[in-house]
Amino acid sequence: MTLITKYLVSDLLRKIFIITFGFTVLSSxxxxxxxxxxxxTYEINLEKIFYSQILNAPSIIYDIIPIATLIGSLWCFAAxxxxxxxxxxxxxxxxxxxxxxxxxxxxxxxxxxTIFLSEIIMPFSxxxxxxxxxxxxxxxxxxxxxxxxxxxxxxxxxxENDANERIINIGQIDFDRKLSSVLVYEFDKxxxxxxxxxAKTGLFQKDKMTDEGVFFYSWSLVKPTxxxxxxxxxxxxxxxxxxxxxxNISESTFNALTIKPEKxxxxxxxxxxxxxxxxxxxxxxxxxxxxxxxxYPLLIWIMLLIATPAAFIQTRxxxxxxxxxxxxxxGIFFHLLNGLVSHLGVxxxxxxxxxxxxxxxxxxxxxxxxxxxxxxxxxxx
Length: 381
Hints:
Blueprint: H1 3-35, H2 46-82, H3 85-91, H4 96-133, E1 141-153, E2 165-174, E3 178-187, E4 193-209, E5 215-222, E6 225-228, E7 236-239, E8 242-247, H5 251-256, H6 266-278, H7 284-295, H8 298-307, H9 309-312, H10 320-347, H11 352-380
Antiparallel strand pairs: 1-2, 2-3, 3-4, 4-5, 4-6, 5-8, 6-7
Helix pairs in contact: 1-2, 1-4, 2-4, 2-8, 2-10, 4-8, 6-7, 7-11, 8-11, 10-11
């Protein structure tokens, strides 16, 4: 790596860091102000609100990092061009090939950071935020108005009775997998309701491990009441001390119940989409989010490419702000395009991979066209 390349990469990363840090602080500040309204609603204090904002920072960084990369790189390249530094660089043998190397090298650590945030840091921080907002205790619960609904299609070797599948409703889920207000509806192969199981408490527990190192899980219900309707002529109702029900639900699928799809990692999205497909449910929205999660890090290099014309168009005095403003407008346009394609794709049942790749590829083509045109403009001058 030449000295010029090192200089450009370090200046590029420094300005991207400044923009990212500024946006993160600004977004956290407004979120902090909004959370202050909850002081009288929930049993939380200023310390917990402040702590939750710190934990939410990785999610903010992940969301803004493409536009921060675009603005930071525009700032870097436009400032260097305004000072005619690129004229000196290109005059000393620095070529377009070297410039592309700057883009690849400068974008690599940001791409790695994006993947690290998505797959490791964000799942951990989101779980901690939920704990803080619930009072900081692991046995606090998340509660929805209608509870959580799960379809559990059973394997033949896991069937304890004549049930073919279960529809499970859970009123509350604790962070240590404790369950409250559990209703289990069991159906036979003819989709006839044959059994209803109700329990005030239960547990989603790790059962046993296979020889391949894969864990089986089960529903452990405490003092459940079982209404057996398998025989229409003899409907019975009994209460038991404890009932264990085997399940095909994996740990990642269960964890996905308490996380918004937009906050899931690619691994969690893929696992949950597979579960939905196996249980004959619509997994299209999760497939789209999965492919978007795969494509997302590549946006860093695309945004850097889009910013490159600022390096080839030499302008003096006052046009740096205009270039950054144009970059912000492009970022807004890309966001709107991304949302539009997603909605059209869902309505027209386009392949999830096409929905995810179309906006970045469009941006890539625009970036290449801008690069070619800016080089022609620079040669004409």
